[in-house]
């Protein structure tokens, strides 16, 4: 167990160092004005574990690609990830990101929207420059995948916003998983793995299996992330504990609670979720949290995450099983276990 | 004069019809949920004159391209234009767009940020599908140009936001023109013309001359647009009259006034521009407007626009002069005059 964590940490550090070094080149100034350069570099420089870049680099290398061949695609993904974070923080009215105030809290919504756009635009450049290392055909295939991924991501975000805006509470596990597939898995796991395989095999393998493996491991990851928001350590986690309840986020735990609660509690929950964020009190949040414990919502979500991680391990053997042993392959194999164990 | 206006209107209608028909295909549903499809289609369906698509289609055709060859690039541009409008309206706290309330006023900032992202992502697809009609090499060249254009645009927006956020008032004509070059001209004129020429000549012509022609005609267009915000007819114009003053927008007229005003007026202007938008009264706006008249700021801006349009006509002869006569070529030639005359 501890061995898994330290092995994954080691690999993440190596992939992350490579992608962050390259990312710095893309973040180098020369834009509109000095202040803008600093704003654009703010989130990327707050760190993060470069998980998405690592999945892409590891898969490409597991298939025999040279380390440099997937680097541009990995960097593009990290830039886009930061673009999403900036806009998501605005949309979710989040207050902290990676241990510091969110960009829009520091500089206002107008600047944050613009900086998110700038990061998204910046993510295009390494993909276009892919032509040099990969040739036109493969570079265009990666762009095709990127377009699909970006589309799924904004649709997933739209779905979640819609639920919140219209105070939708008639939701089941299938709704939750569809939202997470689109909002989180496509860009966090599915796309990095697909592009890694695309580059590693020179477009020589079917990509559906990466959709499945990526979905299982990505959904387990998201549920675990939401669990950490309830039971984690704020200093290590970097966001407000119970912030998801405050934001009215439809987590699997909340959806379970909505299904398990009695009629009276459901009315209270619906009223609380339908009120503006500022009207929710600490008392409300404690009440929700206590009901989640009482109805076993947290334990239930843990079990779903475990089931998904198990399915991911099975898919791993189909998608990666034939490849020769390598640290890159072992890194991918370790992920389903690592996802459940991280704190 | 009237002949110019009706000829341009006719051509715009033809180019616009082609690009809007194709745009509808890209806006067709199948996304996250029904409500989302309607939100994404909202701004595009409010109409507009498809000026950007028209510039692209006309230039490509003037160089002998088949009508269909530049259509995807034209549609991508209109989608991105709508993405920019949604985010710009959030960033500028605008209240009306094309005669109706802005998207964020109707649905809130979170949804508007997401819908703007969705439109930007949607604009990628026709560019990737360019491969079918243009081949990989040329499709990638168009993508390269698109990346440059998008970068210039967000940087231009960043510059303007910075001026407002930090209440910068030490600005001259050169600062204004640099901002307009980046924020408006690159995506409204320079890029459409460059991509039209790229496709029409199969990457067979230098693109610098389109930068100059596009800048001159685009800057004249923007100044005229800002003038209409002061002296236009609200019903035809579709935005609030004097809305720019309310927003603290650094127009050429405001920059001229800041330079011409006496010390006392300058202090008052700076204080007003530095206060929150909600603190600006109708009385403030009338005062600014009256000072613009007194110091000839409006007449000055009109003269700059005329000078730019003249320069555009000269550049036209260099960039398009050798081409055989066609309605497409005549349309481009008519633009500098049309820009000054539209109401």
From TrEMBL, chains A, B:
Superkingdom classification of source: Bacteria
GO terms, biological process: isoprenoid biosynthetic process
Cofactor(s) of this protein: Mg(2+)
Annotated Pfam families: polyprenyl_synt
Alphabetized UniProt keyword annotations: Magnesium, Metal-binding, Transferase
SUPFAM superfamilies in alphabetical order: Terpenoid synthases
GO molecular-function terms, A-Z: metal ion binding; prenyltransferase activity
Family membership noted in the UniProt record: Belongs to the FPP/GGPP synthase family.
Protein name: Geranylgeranyl diphosphate synthase, type II
């Amino acid at each position: 167990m501890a061995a898994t964590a330290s092995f994954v940490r080691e690999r993440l550090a190596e992939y992350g160092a490579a992608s962050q070094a390259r990312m710095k080149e893309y973040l180098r100034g020369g834009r509109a004005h000095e202040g803008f350069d600093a704003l654009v570099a703010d989130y990327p420089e707050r760190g993060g574990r470069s998980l998405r870049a690592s999945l892409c680099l590891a898969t490409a290398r597991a298939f025999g690609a040279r380390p440099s061949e997937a680097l541009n695609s990995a960097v593009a993904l990290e830039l886009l990830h930061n673009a999403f974070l900036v806009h998501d923080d605005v949309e979710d009215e989040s207050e902290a990101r990676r241990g510091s105030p969110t960009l829009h809290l520091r500089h206002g919504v107008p600047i944050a929207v613009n900086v998110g756009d700038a990061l998204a635009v910046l993510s295009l450049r390494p993909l276009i420059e892919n032509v040099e290392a990969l040739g036109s055909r493969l570079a265009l295939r990666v762009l095709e995948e990127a377009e699909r991924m970006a589309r799924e991501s904004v649709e997933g975000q739209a779905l979640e916003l819609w639920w919140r805006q219209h105070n939708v509470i008639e939701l089941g596990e299938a709704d939750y998983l569809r939202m997470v597939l689109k909002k989180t898995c496509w860009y966090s796991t599915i796309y990095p793995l697909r592009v890694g395989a695309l580059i590693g095999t020179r477009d020589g393998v079917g990509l559906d299996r990466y959709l499945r493996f990526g979905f299982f491991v990505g959904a387990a990851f998201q549920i675990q992330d939401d669990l950490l928001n309830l039971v984690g350590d704020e200093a290590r986690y970097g966001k407000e504990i119970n912030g998801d309840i405050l934001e009215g986020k439809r987590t699997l735990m909340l959806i379970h609670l909505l299904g398990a609660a009695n009629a009276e509690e459901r009315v209270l929950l619906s009223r609380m979720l339908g009120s503006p964020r500022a009207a929710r009190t600490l008392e409300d949040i404690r009440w929700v949290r206590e009901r989640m414990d009482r109805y076993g919502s947290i334990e239930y979500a843990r079990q779903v995450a475990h089931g998904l991680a198990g399915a991911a391990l099975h898919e791993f053997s189909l998608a990666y099983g034939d490849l020769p042993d390598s640290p890159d392959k072992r890194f991918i194999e370790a992920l389903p276990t690592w996802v459940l164990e991280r704190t």
